[in-house]
Amino acid sequence: MPEQLNTRVEDCYQLAESFFKRSFKRPVVSLKLRGQKAGVAHLHENLLRFNPQLYRENTEHFLKQTVAHEVAHLIAHQLFGDRIQPHGEEWQLIMRGVYELPPDRCHTYEIQRRRVTRYIYKCPCPDSDFAFSAQRHSLVRQGRRYFCRRCRTTLVFSGEMRVE
C-alpha cells in the first residue's frame, strides 16, 4: 500500500474529526479495484477500495480529490446513517465544508479499456446478432439456454467471435 495514500486517508479523517468534534472509526484501505471506477466506499464494511492504475496515472489529483470523495462517503454514513443519498447534501457538505473541495461525482481520468472477446449467437430473425460475454458463453456450454425475444427460438453460437 503506497504510504501517500494511507497518509491522505488519515489526513481526511483528522480534518473531519476536527470539523465535527468527534472521532471516526478508521477504514480498511485496499488497492484492489479494477475497471472504470477510481474508488469505492463500502459503507457497512468500513472499507475503501481504490484503483491502483488510476492512482499511478493521476497521483496528485487522485490523492487530493478521489481519496477525499471516498472518505466523505464513510464519514457521511457514520454521521447520518443509511437513509441519505450517496452524493446528497450531507456528502456535499463534507466535501465543501470539511475538505474545501468541489463535490464532483465522477472522475475524468483517462481509462484504458481492456480488449474483450464477444461470442456471436444467432436466431432465424434477419440481422440477428447477439454478442455474448465469455461468462455467458460459458453458461450456454454448461446447458443454459437463451431465447430471441422476437421469434422465441433458442439462440445458437455461430462459431464467430469478435474482439472489442
From TrEMBL:
Cofactor note: Binds 1 zinc ion.
GO molecular function ontology, one term from the record: zinc ion binding
One cellular component term from this protein's GO annotations in UniProt: cytoplasm
Domain SprT-like as annotated: residue spans: 7-158
Keyword list, A-Z: Cytoplasm, Hydrolase, Metal-binding, Metalloprotease, Protease, Zinc
Keyword Protein biosynthesis: no
Active site positions, chain numbering: E70
Annotated GO biological process: response to stress
Needed cofactors: Zn(2+)
Superkingdom: Bacteria
Subcellular location: Cytoplasm
Residues at which Zn(2+) binds: H69, H73
Primary localization class, coarse: cytoplasm
Record Pfam families: SprT-like
NCBIfam families for this protein: PRK04860.1
HAMAP family from the UniProt entry: SprT
Family, similarity comment: Belongs to the SprT family.
Name recorded for this polypeptide: Protein SprT
Organism: Pseudomonas hamedanensis
